[in-house]
Amino acid sequence: MKIEITRDHGLINQVLNAPEVIGAVCPDGVTALDAKGLDDGTRIFLKVLKGEAVAGIYVLQRTLPGVFEVHTCLLNSCRGAKAVAAGKLGVEWMFLNTEATRLYSLCPDSNPASMHYAFAVGFHQAFHRAQLWQKGGKPEGATVVELTVQQWAYKNADRYRETGQAFHKQLHAGREEHHGEDVLHDGMLGLALTMGGVQPFKAQELYNTWAVAAGYAPGQFKGRLSNGEQLIDIAEALITYHPGTKQVGILKGF
């Protein structure tokens, strides 16, 4: 299963207007959706692929800088554990590839399964508000769930630990490290390096927010060189890092 961005309006319409989707994601009065009208520059469309088959669409609407509302539109072929796996992939794609620092979604009282799904993907309850949704001709309450990039990073940093370990191995080759093994440090660093290939300043803020609280020096992205290498000041040295090859170079320091 994988996630890809799409602007294929025909494909998006096919999923959004499927019987199992349209009734679940739309309030009363909305009987059809048109991707062409929705594609106004504020929304990102992510398609869920099972092999070559499309299993759903995530519609993410930018409501504030860095803030996106999530609309889950999964077909019957993507349910249960498959749906949870797709949701986690979608969250990862958004946090790694866009400005997103906070994702949120509305879970109507009449659709408790939507909140269970959100929790399984990693979202947390933010608040409940009455009359936030419309169903059956009557207003009803809804729970807003959210997930910040920091919350997501702390729970998923271990998946990027090898990248952080490889970085430290190159950086300290032939030198004694200043600290012993630190699994979370390796994970947070690896995540920041991965994110930094697309979103360097967001990665810098994410890592530094953790680092200063954990007792590490913050780093600073200084720019990108013509060969794709990033110039990074890590306090004890000025280094280069290539997100593609993952090669580390030391320009000065140590």
Describe this structure in words.
The protein is an alpha+beta fold and 254 residues long. The protein has two domains: 2-148, Gcn5-related N-acetyltransferase (GNAT) (Aminopeptidase, 3-Layer(aba) Sandwich), CATH 3.40.630; 154-253, no CATH class. The protein is 37% helix and 32% strand. It has helices at 9-16, 19-25, 35-38, 81-97, 112-121, 149-156, 161-171, 183-196, 200-214, and strands at residues 2-5, 43-50, 53-64, 67-74, 102-108, 124-135, 138-148, 220-224, 230-233, 237-241, 248-253. The strands form two sheets. Strands 1-2-3-4-5-7-6 form a seven-stranded mixed beta sheet, sandwiched between helices. It has a four-stranded antiparallel beta sheet with strand order 8-9-10-11, covered by helices on one side. Strand 4, helix 4 and strand 5 form a beta-alpha-beta unit. The termini are far apart. The mean pLDDT is 91.
Terminal residue distance: 44 Å
Strand content: 25-35%
Shape: elongated
Number of helices: 9
Question: What's the arrangement of strands in the largest beta sheet?
Answer: 1-2-3-4-5-7-6
The domain count comes to 2
Helicity range: 25-40%
